[in-house]
Amino acid sequence: MFKKDALDNIEAPWLFQTDHQADVYNSYDPIILSGSLMQQTLDAFYDEIYKKFHAPAYAGKNFNALRDILTDLSWIINRSRYVVFFQNAEEILIKGQANALQGFLEILVSDRK
């Protein structure tokens, strides 16, 4: 069973699976991504991520830009931690390019030393 206090740890792992509702984690000010809004196209995939992260306007809709945006979060103001939830995660890119999802997950779990 996943324990919420794991979110206070800065050591790996950084990706967890839970059946809890996201509102259980409201004290962490989570970023909630909707898989159902990310299922059709890569544009929809990038749009949902960039919208919820409030990404800068210059963020390109390609994997390299996504990696750059998510591995340097210094452009986000007033946030000391990043807790991201995927609602309906099983729907992400089911009608699009699933390899982009794999790349996105690799970014999320990569080591940031």
Automatic annotation (TrEMBL):
It holds the Pfam family Barstar. Residues 40-108 form the Barstar (barnase inhibitor) domain. Belongs to the barstar family. It comes from the Bacteria. InterPro entries: Barstar, Barstar-like_sf. This is Barstar (barnase inhibitor) domain-containing protein. The lineage of its organism: Bacteria, Pseudomonadati, Pseudomonadota, Alphaproteobacteria, Acetobacterales.
